[in-house]
Design a protein that fits this description.
four-stranded antiparallel β-sheet, single chain, mainly beta, seven-stranded mixed β-sheet
Length: 118
């Protein structure tokens, strides 16, 4: 079993930055394509970014150029650097394993809240 724990959420003003971390345990993350997803109550879950096992990345149009996903397979970590945050980025952010098409897979964490507000 793979356990995923997110950290780094918080509150920030528009235009600010936050860095999210996802720590994996139980299984090595290098086996998995990984992604970050977000969800607002009452809305569908949205895929934000994915990173392949070879480091290739995929981004949603809404965050492309502002967010950067990365991974450190030695530390069993996945990261999401979020810059120039907008109020529309407010959501609970989850890391998860993904399919090759960046759909959420079988393992995901509990999530971390990101709030962007002035």
């Amino acid at each position: 079993q793979l356990q995923l724990v997110e950290s780094g959420g918080g509150s920030v003003q528009p235009g600010g930055s936050l860095s999210l971390s996802c720590a994996g345990s139980g299984l090595p993350l290098h086996r998995f394509m990984m992604g970050w997803f977000r969800q607002v109550p009452g809305k569908a879950r949205e895929g934000v970014a994915c990173i392949q096992t070879n480091g290739g990345t995929i981004y949603a149009d809404s965050v492309n150029g502002r967010f950067t996903i990365s991974r450190d397979d030695v530390r069993n970590m996945v990261y999401l650097q979020m810059n120039n945050l907008e109020p529309e980025d407010t959501a609970v952010y989850y890391c998860a394993t993904t399919s090759a098409s960046c759909e959420r897979g079988g393992y995901w964490g509990q999530g971390t809240q990101v709030t962007v507000s002035s």
